[in-house]
Amino acid sequence: MRGKDADRWKSIFPTYVLMTQDPQKRVGYNESWMKTHLPRTYLYLLQFKDNLLSRKSRVLSKDPFYSLYGVNSDTFASFKVIWGRVANEVKACVVSIKDDKYLGRKPLVPFEAMMIPFSDGDESFYVCALINSSPARLTIRAYIVLHPDTHVLDNIQIPKYEEQNSLHRELSQLSQKAHKLAAKGEEAKAELKMVEEEIDQKAAELWGITEEELNDIKNSLKELS
After folding, report:
1. Looking at the predicted structure, is the pLDDT value of residue 180 above 80?
2. What is the rounded distance in angstroms from the CA atom of residue 121 to the CA atom of residue 63?
3. Dist. CA 53–CA 61, nearest whole Å
4. Residues 155, 143: contact at Cβ < 8 Å?
5. Does 107 lie in the same domain as 196?
6. Beta carbons of 64 and 30 less than 8 angstroms apart
7. 138 — phi, psi (to 5°)?
8. Conformation bin of residue 112: beta by default, left when phi > 0, alpha when psi is -120 to 50
9. Could you report the per-residue pLDDT of 94-124, keeping only the tens digit for each?
């Protein structure tokens, strides 16, 4: 999933990638191993060796020529909050395991995107709700230019998710509802807007923001838009 495929509450147009990276060693699978265990895959990759060797992202010349970099065990986390790497604001969504008609159940992996990995789905939706809320969006837009990296979490205080906290659970549930509505497109646009309003109210409650302050935040976002 590319960063530009991430939108608020939804991901679009996932594509296929040949994952040749060992997530534990953080380098491409050993060439001898590839030749022995996946010979046809290796021959396929060999066709593009010159192109792959010319990449600026290559770190060490001794690495297998098909090494991908920027890949570790977090890349394959069961749940991830993802947003585009180049934008003037954050539009986050939760992605998880995709049931693909060709490959079966596979994790969506980010490319040119920001990512926060999670093992717990409820927690990922909770964090996504707060990142997409109006208070967080205004805070982020106040200091980023084109690269809303994961340092946004240094500037937005998101309390650790607690399952027994009713406010945390409500934010997670609203986020899940927002994702389902966003997937329906235009037909659910009005209902989605109402859910986003609820998320803003809950986020304001979490952060101790008054109704008047929340209205000022929303008006500021409208002006920026």
Report:
1. yes
2. 35
3. 8
4. yes
5. yes
6. yes
7. -65, -40
8. left
9. 999 888 888 899 888 888 888 999 999 999 9
Does the residue 60 lie in any domain? yes
Give the span between the Cα atoms of 182 and 191, in whole angstroms.
Answer: 9
Statement to judge: residues 161 and 84 lie in one domain: yes
Quick one: tokens of 57? Answer: 């992202």
**Separation between Cα atoms, residue 174 and residue 198, nearest integer Å:** 8
Chain-centroid distance, C-alpha 110 = 7
Tell me if 26 sits within 8 A of 75, measured CB to CB.
Answer: no
185 and 89 co-located in one domain: yes
Which residue segment(s) compose the domain that 41 sits in? 20-70
Instruction: Assess contact for 172 and 122: CB atoms under 8 A.
Output: yes
Question: Which residue from 138, 146, 145, 136 is spatially nearest to 221, judged by alpha carbons?
Answer: 138
Instruction: Tell me the average pLDDT across 134-158.
Output: 78
Who's near 194: CB < 8 A, 6+ residues apart? Answer: none
First to last CA, the chain: 26
CA distance 148 to 184: 27
Give a yes or no: residue 11 inside a domain.
no
